[in-house]
Structure prediction request, 166 residues.
Amino acid sequence: MESTSVVTHGEHRSKRAFDTVVADFEAAIGIADEASFRAAVAASTDAEDFERRMRAFEGSSGFMLFIRIDHGAWLARIGQKARAILYVLGNPLIARTMLEHDLAAGLHVPVRVLIHEDPASGTARLTYDLPSSLMAHIGDAQLLAAARRLDEKLTALAERATGAQA
Prediction:
């Protein structure tokens, strides 16, 4: 089975420098390195304990970083000058509000955010796809309501880091 969806793409064009936006973004997200995260999941004894352990990874935005890929670093190795960082971030406590309705939502959480530099101005652009638009094809009203709450959190983080609206 295949389906077609319309994806809503958010782009925040900041007037701030790339390094400033990256620093502000990273300051707002916690870090869930793989080893520590796996250990916390394995050590959890019940739902309450799991929640407590996950909260310890959260940043002030409610998100935690799972993966950070510096596209600019590897692009430099092949002769392309660019500054771009891809982030995979989320929070299992947020994800569960969607996954409890349909596990297919797991394809779209955690979310991806790209911060890249406009080479002409040195300013940053922060881009993402709204989770609710990615999950719309699932067709579950409760899941979409939870995904829209995730949209709001993601948009607030982007506005906080960039000082710009989409």
The first helix runs from residue 18 to 28. The first strand starts at residue 9 and ends at 17.
